[in-house]
Every structure is written in C-alpha cells, then in structure tokens.
Amino acid sequence: MNLFDVYSVWPIEPVKAQGCYIWDENGTKYLDMYGGHAVISVGHCHPHYVESIKNQLDRISFYSNSVVNSLQNRLATKLGELSGYSNFSLFLSNSGAEANENAIKIASFHTKKRKFISFGGSFHGRTVGAVSLTDNPAIWSSYNCNNDVTIIKDFCVESVEMSLKTGDYAGVIIEPIQGVAGIVAPHKDFLNQLRLLTSSYGALLIIDEVQSGYGRSGRFFAHQYSGITPDIITVAKGMANGFPIGGTLISPSISPSKGMLGTTFGGNHLACVAAISVLEIIEQESLVTNAYNMGSYLKEQLVKMKDQYPDVIADVRGEGLMIGVEFMSGFEQIRDLILKEKKIFVGSAKKSVMRLLPPLSIDKSIVDHFITCFNDLIVKITN
C-alpha cells in the first residue's frame, strides 16, 4: 500500500529533537523556528512532558468516554486557571478541525440556526464543516460548497451587520491572528465590534485560537489583547506539544445535553496527561511571559532589518512568537534558502511571507543566532 500523496514535503526526515533543535537521519542539526505549524509549545522532548507520558503508559493509555476519567477534570481545571476561563466548560477532541466542528455544532444547537460568518483569509480546518468556513476554494469539494457560510472580505463591520440583521446566523467565527493567511490580524477594535454585533443580533462569537492560543501571542489567548469574552473558544496546536488533541471552551450561558457531542478518542488518558504536562511547564517556566518578551525582541530585530533592507523586507507583523516577515517581489526564495543554507526551519504563507512560530521556550541567544543567519543570507543574495 502507498500513502495517499497529498503533502508537499521537504526531503528531510527528523529522527531526534530537543528544545528548539531537530536532527535528521544524517545527523544534521536544524534550528526549529516553525514548531511544526506552531505545535511545539514547550520545546521538543521536554523532560517533564516525556516523563509524564511514559508514566501514564505504565498505568492506562486508553478507555472510551463511557467511564470516568479524572484526568479530563484535572486538565479542564488547570486550563481554566491559566487561561482566565474557569467558568467555561471544556469538550475534548483530537484536532483543531474537530474543535471547530464542535464549535459550530454547539452554536447551531444553541441558536437553532444554521448559517455562519467567517472572514477572508481564514483557515479553520479541512473537515466538512470547518473547510466550508475556510477561505480557500482550492480545498473545497462539491460537497463543501453551500450557501450556509458567508465569507466577508477585509474585516468589514458593515457587511457583518448587514448579514446578522437577517436573523439567520448562528455564529461568527474568527481567528484573532490568521496564520495561514500570513500572520494577519483585524484592526484593534474589530473584535470588540464583533462582540457587540453578535450579542445584539443573537449570534454566538466563536474565537478560533487553534494556532494563536496557548501563549503563542504573548497572552494566553490572542483575543485577550482586545478584552472581549467570546461565547466559544477553540484550541489545539500548542495544547499537547505534538500529541493529538483539541478542545472547545464553552460559555456557561450554553447548556449541554446528553449525546449533543461525542468522540471515541477525544480526551483519552495519554492526551490528557500530555496536555496537563504542557500547562504545568507553561506555568512553571513562565512561557507566556517568555513568548511576549522574546517575541518583542525578535520583532524589534526584524523591524531593524526591514529598515536596513527596505528593498528586501516589505513588512514585519504579529504578536508574541507568532510573527510574519513579508518579502518584496523577487526575494520570496529566502524562505527556502534559509533552510537549505542555514539549516533553519521556518514556515510560509502566500509565497511571499515567512512565518516564525518557534517553541515558547526560545531564548535570546537562539533569537540572536537566527537574526545573524537571516542577515547573512540577505547580504549574500543582495551583493
């Protein structure tokens, strides 16, 4: 049997990882400034994370949600404490797409409506409901194309209100920082305006923190920069440092009913232990604060480079350790060259944007090393 060939991959196979570094099968060492799509939150193979999972394997690794699993309660309690959402409820699943599927299902149950609003540049997953909210027709199938989703371009408040006025919408879903679009955020007041509009017209506000959450932005959740309280929050990528898990955080104003949601594997023992250990490391090592401080330093250095090389770097944007560097036309190859020549993993978006999503544990010496390598590469290709 062959693998179903849907991924474009680098010809590199990591076989070992530690902290902010990975090694391939030939022993070549790489700096990881991408974290496997913002998944590696506390660093590769953190000792506490590894030990927690190993210990759980000696006890029980899985049973279905037909029995009590107190690890789920421990995870929910710890997540509530660190995020500031202790009064919310948690439903556990296996991925960000599942978390978003559950979010829109909950909103539809609660409001008894079926339509949703999402935004230009959005990415909410590739499963049936989530992909219909995603602004990328290239990954829609005929089955996904429907009239129940309105995708509003350019974060236009007036267009949102025009749609909500019809009374047909169950909810509005938005990423506080769009990752796949190239680290793009709406203007500062937009989330506040959405909160007012959804409350006024009886729709739920869903904040997709799958990529931006868990401290990546320098706050536990990126939407906390705006001061709003949404109805539903979705999380996944940084939640368990690579172990498959997703979560949907649900306002106390929304009531559950038996059978409303369900999953076989979601919230299993190993996933919960992995996620608990991540929260413990985030708390013990002050990684949200570190993400803010190191992200501010990294962004400051990148802005200096933009000023030094205005013909190469068009823009630097983002919050915390979720940063995008946009290149001027003709310099898009830098993202590939930094891997090939400097052995540094970075991400990309829309061909011209380099995404930086390193582990939240990154320190100043590693940031300085990255900046030196990046600067050397620009000097080389411009001379």
Structural overview:
This protein is of the alpha/beta class and 383 residues long. The chain folds into two domains: 14-45 and 286-382, Aspartate Aminotransferase, domain 1 (Alpha-Beta Complex), CATH 3.90.1150.10; 47-284, Type I PLP-dependent aspartate aminotransferase-like (Major domain) (Aspartate Aminotransferase, domain 2, 3-Layer(aba) Sandwich). The chain has eleven helices and 15 strands. The strands form three sheets. It has a seven-stranded mixed β-sheet, sandwiched between helices. Helix 6 (157-164) runs parallel beside helix 7 (190-201). The termini are far apart. The mean pLDDT is 97.
The neighbouring-strand order within the major sheet is: 4-10-9-8-7-5-6
Number of strands: 15
CATH topology term of the largest domain = Aspartate Aminotransferase, domain 2
What structural class do you assign from the helix and strand content? alpha/beta
Q: Largest sheet, described in full?
A: 7 strands, mixed
